[in-house]
Amino acid sequence: MAVEAGFAVGDGVFDTPLPGVPFADPRDAVGQECEAGLVAWQARMVHDEWRRACWMLETARARADTLQRWPEPDPRVIAARLGWSVAMAASRLETAQGALERLPRLGEAMREGRVEHAKAAVFVAGLRDVTDEQATVVVDALISQAPKLGVWELQQRIAAAVKDVDPLGAENRRDAAVARSRVSTRIAPSGAAEIHGLDLDPGMAVPAFERIAAVAEVAVERLKAAGNSVGPAKVQAQVYLRLLHGCPHGSDDLAVLEQVVLDLTTPAGPADDLDDLPDLDDLPDPDDGPDDGPDDGPDDGPDDGPDDGPHDDGPDDGPDDRGSCGAGPDDHGGPDDGGPSDGARSAGGPSESGPSPSDDGGPDERPDAGRWSDHAPDAATAEDLDTLLPTASPPGWQPGGPEPDPPPPDTPDPRVPTTEPPPDLAARWTERGLVFPPATLRTTLACVLGLQRAHGRIGAGTLTGWDAYRAAWARTCAQFRVLLYDPDGALEHVLLVRAPQQPAADPRYRRQVVELTAHTSEVDTLDPERQLIGSWAELARRTRRALVAARERPVDEHPAHSTREAGHRFPGAELTRWIHARDRTCRFPMCTVPAVACPIDHTHDHTHGGPTQADNLGPLSVGDHLRKHDPTSGWTVRQTRPGRFVWTAPTGTHHLVEPDPYRPLRPVARDRFDHGITDPHTTARPTRPWQPRTDQHGHLTDAQRQTLHDLDRRRRQQQNQPPNPHDDEPPF
User: Looking at the predicted structure, is the pLDDT value of residue 381 above 90?
Assistant: First the structure.
C-alpha cells in the first residue's frame, strides 16, 4: 500500500510532525494497515480542525486593509461567510478561543491530532464557569485520558473535576440552576408529545426516576409472564404518565403497577375470519320478550346471579388478589414458566379488568356493553355485529371519567387502596413503596463524614458535594463499602461497613450500594473522638475497626490473592465485591456499563480449566460477554495481571484496558468575593469608577456626595497617594 511520507501543513506556527497518511484504496490493505490508515487520517483531520479554529478566530477579529485585530471576535462574520447560524458560529468561536488562548494545552493536543473538536468543545463548555487557574488544573489532570474516553464519559469526568477544584462555586451554580427549575412540553415533529423537567433538584429528581424504574421493573416481569413483550423504556414511559395522569385506585406503587399492566396488556383482536361471526338466524328475535326463554330474564336461571359465572367479581377476584397467579421475584417468565396463560390474570387480563357483565343493570349502563352476555339487545341487525363481537377489556379508567360501579357486598371495594402487597411482591415491598432497582452511589469517605465537599457519581451523572452527602445518608439502608487505596492509587481493601441507621433513611434503597473512597492513610490518621460526633463518629469508628480486622487476616485470604474459590463455578460475595471495586465498569474497550450491572466473566474459560480467582475474573456486559465467546467476532482477551486486560481486535490491534488510579483533585481557591456563577473572562474587565444615581433633577444628595468623598479617600490611601486638599474643612 502506497503511503505518503508526510503532507504539507503550512509554515511557521502550523509546522507539526504528523504520521504518514495512506492515499491508496483501503480495500487493498490488510486489517492492520486499514486501522493504521484510519488513525493517520483521524490525526490529520483533527489537526485540520485546529488550523480551521486558528483561521476562524483571526477572521472574526480582522479588519479590512489592516493587520490590526479587534479585541472582541464577531461571530456574525463567520456565520455570514460560511452560511452558519449565528448561534453555531458563536459556539464554534467559543471553542476556538478557549482552546487556543485560555487553555493552551488543549490547543496543543488538537494541533498534535489527539483531541478532536467535539471533545475540545466539552472541555471549553465544562470549564466555562471556573477560573483560569482551576481550568488549567482540570485540563492537566484529564488531557492524557481524553483520547481514550467517550464524549459522555469525558463530560462526566470534567464535571466531577470541576466540583472537586471549585466546590463552593459548584454549590452556588447548582442552587442558581435549581432556582430556575421548570417543566416544558411540546409536540414533536412526529406528532408525539414530550415533557421535560429542567434544572430539577437532584435530591427529589433521582428518587422520582428510581420509583419509575422500580414500578416498571415489576411491570415488565408481569407483562412477560402474561406473554406480552414490551420494552423497559416503553413501560417506564407509561409509568411516568400514570403517575402524573392518575389511576382510579390511587397513586401508590401497587395501583400504578396494576394500571400500567392493564394499559400495556395486548388486547384480543377482532375475529380474523368471517366464519367465526355469529349467524344472524341465531341472534335473538326483536319480538322476544323477557319471559320467552329460560335464559331471557334476569332472575330466571340459576346461573344468572351476580356472583356466578367465570367472570364474576367474587371474593377472590377483587383488586387485593392481584399477582396471586403471577410470577414471583425470581420468576422471569422463561420458557418453563407455563406460557402466557400462567400469569394472565395477575397481569391485568380481561377477566380482572373491570366489573363483569352480570354486575350491571343493562347494556347501556355497563362500560363493557359490547361483550356477550345474557342480556340480549332489543333488536339485532348487520350493523350490530361489531357491538356483539367478543372484544378485549375496556381501556383503563381516565381522570374525569365515570367512577367504576361498586362491587357486591362480599367483594373488597376496588376504589379503596390497599396497603397489603400481593404475595409475589412481598420481598420488594416497604412501607414507602416498591424497592428501587440496584444502583451504585460513589463518593468520598471524607464527604460523607462532613470533612469536605467532594463530588458524587450515580448512574444519571455527577452530583455536587452537598447532594452526594445527602444522598449517602438517605441510603443508610443500603450496603456501605469503603474502598481504600494506596498512595499510588491502587486498590488495597474493600471494607463492608454497616452504616448507622437514620430515622429518615429510605428503605427503598436497600438493594443499592454506597461506595466510599479514601486513601488508607486518611483512615489511619482519622480520630473519630476528636474530629467527629454522632453518626459521623460512629461511621468512622466502624471503618477503622473494619480496617484493623482486614489487616489481621492472612495475606492468602485477601480476595486479590485468595485461591479458596479457584474450583468454584461462580465467585463468592467478597470476591465479587473486590472485582466490582477494582474494575468499576465493563472491561471491553470504551464500554461504560457499571460493573455491578455486568456478569462476572472468566478471562480463561472455567470449562477449559480457568480458575475462579481475581487474576482470571472481570466484569463484562451481556453483549460484550457474548461477543467474547463468539468465535466469529474476532475479539480475544488476555489478563496479563489482575485488572489489566489486553484485547485483540479483529484487525490484529491490541487495546489495553486497566483501572484508572485513584487521584482525587484538591480544591483551588477563588477570589474571596467571587461566587463562581458568572462566566470568567480571559482578560479582566475594566474597572469603572462608581457613579452615584442622581435624582429626577440630576442633582446629588449630601449622602451621595459624602460617599464619593469616602471612596476617593480610601482609594488614595490604598494607592499611597497624598490626601485630597478638599477633604478637610478650610482653615477659615
Answer: no
Buried b vs exposed e over 626-665: b needs ≥16 C-beta within 10 Å?
A: eebeeeeeebebebeebbebbbebeeeeeeebbbeebebb
Give the whole-number percent of the chain exceeding pLDDT 70: 72
Packing angle, helices 202-225 and 232-245, rounded to 10: 120
Quote the CA–CA distance of 462 and 156 in Å, as a whole number: 6
Query: What are the DSSP calls for 304-334, one per residue?
Result: -STT-STT---TTSSGGGTTTTS--TT----
Cβ 166 vs Cβ 668: under 8 Å: yes
Q: Are strands 600-602 and 617-619 parallel, antiparallel or unpaired?
A: antiparallel
d(CA 35, CA 122): 26
DSSP track, 271-301: PSSGGGSPPGGGSPPTT--TTSSTTTSTTSS
Pairing state between β 429-430 and 433-434: antiparallel
CB-neighbour burial class of residue 231 (10 A; exposed 0-12, middle 13-18, buried 19+): exposed
Cα 61 from Cα 70, distance rounded (Å): 5
pLDDT over 50 at 10, yes or no: no
Q: Which residues 6+ apart lie within 8 Å of 728 measured at CB?
A: none
Q: How far apart are the first and last CA of the chain?
A: 99
Region 287-297 average pLDDT: 45
Tell me the C-alpha to C-alpha distance, in Å, between residue 397 and each of 244, 258, 259, 416: 14, 12, 9, 15
Residues 6+ apart with CB under 8 A from 17: 6
CA atoms 590, 593, 596, 597: torsion sign: negative
In this structure, the number of other CB atoms found within 10 A of the CB of residue 454 comes to 24
* SS3 state at 671: coil
In order of 386, 449, 623, the CA distances from 280 in angstroms are 13, 79, 56
pTM of the model: 0.71
Nearest to 578 by CA among 597, 560, 553, 555: 560
pLDDT band with cut points at 50, 70 and 90 for residue 513: very high
Exposure of 8 by Cβ count < 10 A (0-12 exposed, 13-18 middle, 19+ buried)?
exposed
Helix axis angle for 104-111 and 117-126, nearest 10°, is 170
**Grid cell digits, residue 421:** 402487597
Q: What is the Cα–Cα distance from 60 to 663, expressed in whole angstroms?
A: 40
The string over 414-437, giving b where at least 16 C-beta atoms fall within 10 Å of a residue's C-beta and e elsewhere, is beeebeebbebbeebbbeebbbbb
Q: b/e string for 692-715 if b means 16 or more Cβ within 10 A?
A: eeeeeeeeeeeeeeeeeeeebeee
* Grid coordinates given for 720: 499611597
Residues 6+ apart with CB under 8 A from 607: none
Tell me the pairing of strands 440-444 and 513-519. parallel
CA atoms within 13 A on the CB side of 425: 29
Nearest-5° Cα angle at 78, 77 to 82: 120
Query: Alpha-carbon distance 215 to 208, whole Å?
Result: 11
Written as nine digits, the cell of 282 is 341465531
Measured CA to CA in angstroms, residue 637 lies from 8, 580, 607, 647 at distances of 39, 19, 16, 4
pLDDT digits (tens, 9 = 90+) for 132-175: 999 999 999 999 999 999 999 999 999 999 999 999 999 999 99
Residue-wise pLDDT for 310-329, tens only, equals: 344 443 444 344 333 333 33
pLDDT digit string (tens) for 629-651?
998 999 999 999 999 999 999 98
**Location of C-alpha cell 411516568:** 240
pLDDT value of residue 143: 96
d(CA 434, CA 424): 12
Mean pLDDT of 35-47: 88
634: Cβ–Cβ under 8 A, 6 or more apart, which residues?
A: 649, 650
